[in-house]
């Protein structure tokens, strides 16, 4: 055997190298400046995490589950159910959510609850829903129709239905003739749709001899589950296996058309916005910058007329945010702003229209429009390089008008290497993007990685979204997340489209990181949370308020955590 | 619209940034110094590649396939069948294969062909193979028994069979009572097992009224397919879905026990070694450093006695290599060396035995033993840090004895972040490893990445192995491959265990890279091939010979390529 001193020297050299590398990390400053309470909490948290990995994710003989596994598999294995780590993650203050698409943020059951209360809500399909096969192949849409608008009285589930005609949502819902899609495979609906089926629902759903009133209720629930299945990527019996990004996007894109008609109605829009803020507040998120897709010209007013224009959407958004803020009488910070977006399949002429529309809205509501972005499936859609003339003109126009509408571009949400979606990173950076949405392919670019760090551009990484949309098999093999974090490139974890993925808030993404990475600690999550505030697009004064609010909440969290788990250190 | 000059300035800035980043890449020197023939070939090759992506991997409306997709899916979509890119990749000289496990390198059908000719070959199972269920749950082993050794005459497929007793391989093969496992799902066997079922096999296999001789032949073929299924990860009807690394390793590890008894027989061992070199030569590989696992104490001699020790394995290896070399009378370079390995579940005491065994073999065959490694599933097995005392002692012993046996450690073949398998990278580097096997987690370590580059440590990346064993969903999302290549960290693509994965040679891994990455060109592949020679563990003089041989073959390849495809440039 080598002398003890040689072994010791090697061990010390390894420790020194690890320390040297750890000093480059994003959480190094936080770990070097812990209060004694934070130090205790951090130690306990790591212990709880390690225990939870062992008891829940790496059980002896369990080859199916692993820490950080795919989101739906993880949910099946209990992710989101109370556990020590989950409870703590859920409770900790998480700062700002910087990347979520407005129409993909709130639980779809909220939209369904509102649709059920909206008498004028109508439904249509492009085929007769007379077979189970048609049910899942159809393009289904919802819309609130004006008073007196014509509606077919034919059942959408029969051969008499004329495809494309509107029918009553209420009738379609209550006469839904198909089984509950989340029960088709014999598993429990609650299991697949957490929080979706009311816990007060009758247990007799699988029972043959139910009272007629229950039958209607069951049909309604089965319909709700069907609508839920149309609006989410949550696996169910009739959803074909998704094995790659192209398949995931095909299903993903179809969900927005279903959601559009439910959300695009003034009273729902306002209620949805309020729920967005409230649900984020419940998850410890103080502030949200949400990307609103202004591609549609108009939404539907309360009276059913379809002429609610962009400036009125923003007005409603502001009203909703202000009403929620007024409700928070405890002094907690809560707020949201808008990033104006349109979709990257338009031409330059149309883009100019949207850019001018954005400028118009910014002038109307200068505090509320904080950035501009182009969204959509990067691989097949148009690259930023196509839009350079108009994007440069926009920068010039903003300068002339004295407006600050920075770009916050999606870029590098791709597996391609050297193709257009990957090359969007170059254009985004040289267009002075303030943040980058996704940047899945960024860590492959050594020079761009350094530039992003130097220019202090924050990368909005959406681990669960990236996994579900086929860019990584799990958070553990994400092409950029850990590489960027370890290089101290600014990263903000984000949820992207939780309506569709069901990773509501930030707790799921935070949990997947902490459970899968032994290098990550409570202080790492705290660093991510606090830093997210730094990369918001608000003025410095507002940031100061947010920081102070976060610090206060963090201290409260640490106090709660030690009260709850302090005993662990004594064990 | 912005002025043309502003747009031009942006476009130029993007081009400059791209060029600046490209200058950091591994292929930059090669691309900057092309001969005019290389320049033409490179342009044509990129054009053929782009066309093949469009025609084969990104067909309109095809959501199933994509360039760089999982290996078995890709094979189903034609990977390995003649195509312009495949033919060129297959034909190009690929230099050295630096990472393959000896008992996992040659096509398993080669072993089966030899088993069929080995009268003394026996088979056993730990359960009666009397049901299809048992067939797939059993642990099956093969072994050549000495003359006169007792064998059960009971059929292994009946209730009379006593589990654990040896039966005749020939009888078991010819009386196999189950259907061809690759036909169970109604698909074509050839499809799933390329080159496995002889193309001259009778087509009447699915036909009910076959002649008795065909029945025996069919039973034998079905048995061969069963044995093939036991030795590979190739999907078939009875193989449960593999969704993560733990499941993949469970199946992967089981294959070696089946292979062991077929390969561990002197005549087969020698023939296998020759086939290893020859099959690599056919794939354009001139030189192989193969890791031989010396965990087993003895193999079986030609006369069936099981006392063939380590030094005799090496002797047989050398004889085989020399015989193949003698066959190559055209002056082409062909050679192979041994990296001594044992498995990382042993204790330090046992490790010392292996290290001394390695030293003994090095003294006996100084040219042939070129390195030492510890192998096995890194996540659950022991980390390098456990073995430091003995590894340091070994270095000291080698110094005293004047022997050069560098470490070439597996490290970072993991999805874990900050756990032991990931931390193996620190130990490996500080133990002066000459190369690193896998390094899947390396790119997440900024300091180690820089150190590896500075110390000129080559990373043996095995993209298809990493995908099949659950470390990445496809080559496109590999956590380190492109990140390291773009930083010009030395990388050698490797096959790892092609017997089991069926990515024989290097063509499959090269193809997956070139087809999935638009940044990769013919000259990139040439750089990888030529560079692999640099990181071999032979002396400088031999390297010079290899380089010269590669250059000659490369020029021949370019001449062939231009003759074959020169017309493309004129189109």
From TrEMBL, chains A, B:
Molecular function, one GO term: adenosine deaminase activity
Listed PROSITE patterns: A_DEAMINASE (PS00485)
Tagged with keyword Metal-binding: yes
Adenosine deaminase domain sequence ranges: 243-545
Cofactors: Zn(2+)
UniProt cross-references to InterPro entries, sorted A to Z: A/AMP_deam_AS, A_deaminase_dom, Ado/ade_deaminase, Metal_Hydrolase
GO biological process: one example: inosine biosynthetic process
Family: Belongs to the metallo-dependent hydrolases superfamily. Adenosine and AMP deaminases family.
Protein name: Adenosine deaminase
Organism: Pseudozyma hubeiensis (strain SY62) (Yeast)
């Amino acid at each position: 055997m080598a002398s003890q001193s040689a072994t010791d020297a090697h061990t010390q050299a390894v420790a020194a190298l690890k320390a040297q590398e750890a000093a480059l990390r994003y959480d190094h400053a936080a770990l070097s400046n812990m209060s004694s309470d934070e130090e205790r909490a951090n130690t306990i948290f790591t212990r709880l995490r390690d225990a939870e990995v062992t008891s829940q994710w790496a059980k002896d003989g369990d080859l199916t589950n692993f820490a950080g596994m795919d989101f739906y598999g993880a949910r099946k294995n209990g992710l989101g159910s109370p556990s020590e780590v989950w409870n703590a993650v859920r409770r900790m203050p998480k700062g700002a959510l910087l990347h979520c698409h407005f129409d993909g943020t709130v639980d779809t059951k909220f939209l369904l609850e509102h649709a059920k209360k909206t008498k004028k809500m109508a439904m249509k399909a492009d085929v007769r829903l007379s077979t189970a096969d048609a049910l899942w192949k159809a393009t289904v849409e919802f819309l609130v129709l004006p008073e007196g608008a014509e509606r077919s009285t034919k059942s959408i589930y029969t051969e008499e239905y004329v495809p494309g005609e509107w029918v009553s949502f209420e009738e379609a819902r209550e006469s839904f003739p198909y089984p509950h899609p989340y029960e088709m495979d014999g598993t429990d609906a609650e299991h697949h749709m957490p929080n979706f089926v009311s816990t007060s629902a009758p247990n007799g759903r699988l029972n043959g001899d139910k009272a007629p009133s229950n039958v209607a209720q069951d049909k309604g629930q089965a319909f709700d589950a069907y609508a839920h299945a149309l609006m989410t990527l949550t696996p169910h019996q009739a959803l074909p296996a998704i094995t790659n990004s192209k398949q995931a996007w095909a299903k993903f894109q179809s969900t927005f058309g279903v959601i559009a008609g439910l959300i695009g109605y003034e009273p729902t829009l306002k209620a949805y916005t309020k729920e967005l803020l409230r649900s984020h507040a419940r998850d410890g998120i103080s502030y949200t910058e949400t990307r609103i897709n202004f591609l549609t010209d108009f939404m539907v007013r309360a009276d059913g007329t379809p002429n609610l224009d962009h400036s009125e959407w923003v007005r409603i958004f502001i009203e909703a945010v202000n009403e929620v803020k007024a409700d928070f009488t405890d002094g907690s910070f809560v707020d949201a702003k808008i990033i104006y977006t349109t979709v990257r399949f338009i031409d330059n002429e149309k883009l100019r229209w949207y850019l001018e529309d954005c400028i118009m809205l910014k002038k109307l509501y200068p505090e509320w429009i904080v950035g501009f972005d182009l969204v959509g499936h990067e691989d097949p859609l148009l690259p930023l390089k196509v839009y350079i003339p108009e994007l440069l003109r926009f920068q010039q126009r903003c300068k002339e008008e004295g407006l600050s509408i920075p770009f916050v571009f999606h870029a590098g949400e791709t597996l391609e290497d050297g193709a257009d979606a990957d090359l969007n990173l170059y254009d985004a950076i040289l267009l002075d993007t303030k943040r980058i949405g996704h940047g899945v392919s960024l860590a492959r670019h050594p020079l761009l990685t350094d530039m992003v760090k130097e220019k202090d551009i924050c990368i909005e990484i959406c681990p669960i979204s990236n996994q579900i949309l086929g860019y990584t098999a799990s958070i553990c093999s994400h092409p950029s997340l850990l590489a960027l974090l370890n290089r101290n490139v600014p990263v903000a974890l984000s949820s992207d489209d939780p309506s569709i993925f069901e990773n509501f808030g930030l707790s799921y993404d935070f949990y997947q990181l902490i459970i899968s990475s032994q290098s990550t600690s409570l202080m790492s999550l705290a660093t991510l949370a606090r830093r997210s505030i730094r990369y918001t697009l608000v003025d410095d004064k507002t940031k100061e308020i947010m920081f102070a609010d976060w610090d206060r909440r963090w201290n409260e969290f640490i106090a709660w955590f030690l009260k709850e788990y302090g005993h662990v250190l004594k064990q």
